[in-house]
Design brief:
single chain; about 625 residues; alpha+beta; six-stranded antiparallel beta sheet; five-stranded antiparallel beta sheet; globular
Length: about 625
């Protein structure tokens, strides 16, 4: 195809669509650039073209909970999957699992399941919109969420160098209450494998019919469905009703007299502006805040991502968790304080909490958003994230499943190996099986399975050093990882929101980059060289691709750092590990990389916080 400029690209592959046409509520007086695709191949091709033209990409499904803009967004293309071909497929895979394309509705999926004697999700049958949109919101009803059915999601990453379709199991997705990794528009969902259970068809049919009757009782007229998420204290509808919100209006929009958590279009209205919708939304939030001292969180999605910030009438309030109980406690205290100070300098309301045990403190339950800056132990292995998810508390960083996987060096290596990411040949030992693993060549690296900052790590040059290394490593856990040593240049790559920062080359005089080389510098002075001068750019590109692949596969969110060793002569490399909560001290690597590309530490922290806040629509 000949080279086209941006205007020609949008004219060739997009059309101007009115928000009134493509969204449920019809809020937004301007238009958007809409690109409609029917196949995975077409989607991949257009994503590549739009990215090369410097256009931003967002997804829009059925548009049920989508709120448009009053101003044109000339640098944004909204991709919509068309029914038919790849995206409307419904296929029985075995006696319990169904593959559904992203353009299928939940009603279609539930009824297809029923035709094959499967069910258990009747409560989802009345949710409007398409599977892609439902997955993005992890929508649910009647005590069940779509995530409860998901066994695999097929998607196209918008942040990868290699645009292609790939799959992830649910463990790598970090689903939570009305939360998924897809809310930030970094993925285009193409379909999913859903698992149902065997049911009595007649009984299931009755449940589906009952859900249809219940849904008919919903407020009539055009709407975006429920406007606010249910907080832990009480259903949002009840709080809004008690705050006197029923019947409030602004322009074309009215809080339904039937249900206070629904905004509907007023009969006969022609144009509904974002400004009027925003005014009404803020009035509802303000009334609940004054009446109940509860901050409601919108469930709707905005075409303009900055609208989430405009919904705030005061700065975002952040609780930074620091300390913990692991061997890395001192580093966490320093990292947490640094992040807290950086956020304060950007105008956020910040509190710090020294957490010493795995429990939800009152401060965490009251926080608008939590930032776990915890290294090692329950702070990084997913346990504190699991508590936050179960309590519905928004937080910065990867979800519990991703944290657990990334922290566990063995599970990380299994993931790398399964997807062709080079890593060192290894074996796992425990105190009852202490023999030198057969098939591994000296020198060997012995390290704990779930520990950071190189605690417990040894390089074993010969069998004579073996027992000494075991004595050290088993202080940090019952299992130990043994790897063949890879001689080369050590590099690290930080990633923020799925985008790679400049690569850092780490030069040290010790055998490995150990705790002293990282923090103490008693025996060597470590150099951190941004843009990795010893590593040629073609090799760096391979390392970046592998790191971004690990970011996607692990289900990481917001921030990740990968450590690698590379032979600059041959281009061979191995990935050592990932770090879901990398350090943020004065010597930490991700802030150094961000600084090398002109991003200050406060700006980096604000970017990470706002990315997480957008995911939760804060």
């Amino acid at each position: 195809m000949p080279q086209l400029d941006t205007a020609e690209i949008t004219e060739k592959f997009c059309r101007k669509a009115d928000w009134n046409e493509i969204t449920g509520l019809g809020a937004g007086s301007s238009f958007c650039l809409l690109s409609e695709v029917k196949t995975v191949a077409e989607a991949i091709n257009r994503i590549r073209i739009f990215q090369q033209a410097g256009l931003k990409i967002q997804m829009i499904g059925g548009g049920m909970n989508f709120i448009g803009s009053d101003e044109p967004l000339p640098d944004v293309v909204f991709i919509k999957l068309q029914p038919g071909d790849d995206f409307s497929v419904l296929r029985l895979l075995d006696d319990r699992r169904i593959y559904a394309g992203a353009a299928c509705t939940l009603s279609e999926i539930v009824r297809f399941a029923l035709d094959h004697g499967l069910g258990g999700a009747a409560g989802l049958s009345g949710i409007p919109g398409t599977l892609g949109g439902v997955l993005a919101m992890n929508a649910g009803a009647q005590g069940i969420c779509i995530a409860d059915l998901v066994k695999e999601v097929k998607m196209i990453s918008l942040s990868a160098a290699d645009i292609r379709e790939f799959s992830l199991p649910p463990a790598g997705l970090g689903f939570g209450y009305r939360k998924s990794p897809f809310l930030r528009d970094n993925m285009l969902i193409t379909g999913a494998v859903l698992e149902f259970r065997k049911v009595d068809p007649e009984a299931e049919k009755e449940l589906i019919q009952a859900e249809a009757v219940r849904r008919k009782q919903a407020p009539k007229g055009r709407s975006a469905g429920s406007i606010f998420r249910n907080p832990a204290a009480a259903p949002a509808g009840r709080l809004l009703e008690e705050a006197g919100c029923k019947g409030l209006s602004s322009g074309a929009f009215l809080v339904s007299p039937e249900h206070a958590n629904w905004i509907v279009r007023q009969a006969g209205s022609q144009t509904g502006t974002l400004a009027d919708f925003r005014k009404l939304l803020l009035e509802m939030k303000d009334r609940v805040r004054k009446t109940h001292n509860i901050e409601l969180i919108p469930e709707v999605r905005f075409a303009e991502m900055s609208e989430n910030r405009k919904m705030r009438e005061k700065p975002l309030s952040v609780l930074v968790l620091k300390g913990g109980a692991s061997s890395e406690r001192s580093v966490s205290l320093e990292s947490g304080h640094a992040i807290a100070d950086a956020l304060r300098s950007k105008g956020y309301e910040v509190s710090e909490y020294d957490i010493r045990e795995l429990a939800l403190a009152p401060e965490m339950k009251q926080a608008q958003i939590v930032w776990p800056v915890l290294h090692g132990g329950f702070g990084e292995d997913g346990r504190i994230q699991k508590l936050l998810e179960e309590a519905g508390i928004p937080f910065v960083g990867s979800g519990s499943a991703a944290c657990a996987l990334i922290m566990d060096k063995i599970e990380s290596k299994k993931l790398m190996s399964a997807h062709g990411i080079p890593n060192a040949k290894y074996a796992v030992i425990d105190p009852d099986h202490r023999e030198i693993p057969a098939g591994l060549k000296f020198p060997l690296v012995v390290k704990p399975v779930s520990e950071g900052s190189t605690y417990g790590l040894s390089v074993v040059e010969s069998p004579a050093d073996w027992e000494k290394a075991l004595e050290l490593v088993f202080r940090y856990g019952k299992d130990a990882l043994v790897e063949e040593f890879f001689a080369g240049v050590e590099v690290t790559l930080g990633m923020i929101a799925g985008k790679a920062l400049p690569m850092i080359e780490i030069r040290y005089t010790t055998k490995v980059y150990d705790y002293d080389a990282k923090y103490l510098h008693k025996t060597c002075e470590t150099q951190y060289l941004c843009h990795a001068p010893a590593v040629p750019e073609p090799i760096q590109e391979k390392l970046r691709a592998a790191s971004l692949e690990f970011f996607r596969l692990s289900g990481a969110q917001d921030i990740l750092r990968t450590d690698m060793m590379v032979d600059v002569k041959t281009g061979d490399f191995i990935m050592l590990e990932g770090n879901a909560i990398p350090g943020c001290t004065a010597n930490s690597l991700v802030p150094k990389a961000a600084k090398a590309m002109g991003m200050s530490f406060p700006d980096m922290c604000a970017l990470l916080l706002e990315g997480a806040a957008a995911r939760y629509a804060l």
